[in-house]
């Protein structure tokens, strides 16, 4: 489902997803509509704008947080012009995964956007690097302080949704080096062995939760 007050953007995203074989069960223009649609359709993913009627401040993000409370595990992909820190952290740290936050002005490739949609719907994460930078700038201490600069760099790329192979290519290092960094990250954050994907999501959420 899509929650976006701009009718042109709302219909544009709907059409784009339809072209990729992704069905939209509801398209609404405010937070109340989002909550109603989630309760009625129990969608596989909610794509949400931050600022919607009536005050155009943070209604969309607050509604998304509430929707995840009412439907635990609901994947949410925020698609916005703004980084709203307070509710962004609450959303990103409030579940086991299935969260994304992309800035509209930085979504330049349709294929990458569709990949983000599918990744978040499947329970993964996809966080814009500018969103990460603004949230990390809050500067509160957390277990991330235990990581080396390279490990934080690797974890930042994990937050963007990159695989180990893609991280190795981005940093121009070997796959083995990345695997070692990822293992160190899990150990320093106290993430006990489970499924690899689940630990990656938990590590990313720790990275984004500054307290």
UniProtKB/TrEMBL annotation:
HTH luxR-type domain ranges (all copies): 140-211
GO molecular function: DNA binding
Gene3D superfamilies, A to Z: 3.40.50.2300
GO biological process terms, semicolon-separated: phosphorelay signal transduction system; regulation of DNA-templated transcription
Stretches assigned to the Response regulatory domain: 1-119
Keyword annotations of the record: DNA-binding, Phosphoprotein, Transcription, Transcription regulation
SMART domains to which the protein is assigned, alphabetical: HTH_LUXR, REC
Keyword DNA-binding: yes
Residues with the 4-aspartylphosphate modification: 49
PANTHER family: TRANSCRIPTIONAL REGULATORY PROTEIN NARL-RELATED, TWO-COMPONENT RESPONSE REGULATOR
Protein name (database record): DNA-binding response regulator, NarL/FixJ family, contains REC and HTH domains
Gene source species: Actinokineospora iranica
Source species taxonomy: Bacteria, Bacillati, Actinomycetota, Actinomycetes, Pseudonocardiales
